[in-house]
Amino acid sequence: MVNCKISGTQPLCYAHDLMMENCTMADDCDLAFEYSSVQATINSSIRSVKNPRTGSITAESYGEVILDENIKAPGNCQLRLWNERTCFSA
To answer: Which InterPro entries does the annotation name (predicted)?
Structure first.
């Protein structure tokens, strides 16, 4: 996906090998990327990310990051900020 805008609750969950480039997330976009393998560059903040499975997500900021006992292996998705710092590793 390139130059897209994503909206809604629980978008992009259960995706495999999802690639996103130069995309934005709407304000109503929450609980994103659950159980997904993803490589994403997001040009906005993300309201919430829940249990991403693997890969990396780079965004302006994260409102909420949910990593709970239901996360699927390998559970090693890296969440990064635009300034290249790693925020969290699941």
So the answer is: DUF3737
The C-alpha atoms of residue 42 and residue 48 are separated, in whole angstroms, by 13
Angle at 34 between CA 70 and CA 53, to 5 degrees: 75
Query: In whole angstroms, what is the distance from residue 90 CA to residue 81 CA?
Result: 15
Contacts of 14 (CB under 8 A, 6+ apart): 34, 35, 36
Cis upstream peptide for 74 (omega within 30°)? yes
Q: Where are the beta strands (DSSP E) in the chain?
A: 5-6, 18-25, 37-42, 45-50, 54-59, 61-66, 78-81, 86-89
In angstroms, the CA 86 to CA 80 distance is 4
Per-residue model confidence as pLDDT tens digits over 24-75 = 999 999 999 999 999 999 999 999 999 999 999 999 999 999 999 999 998 9
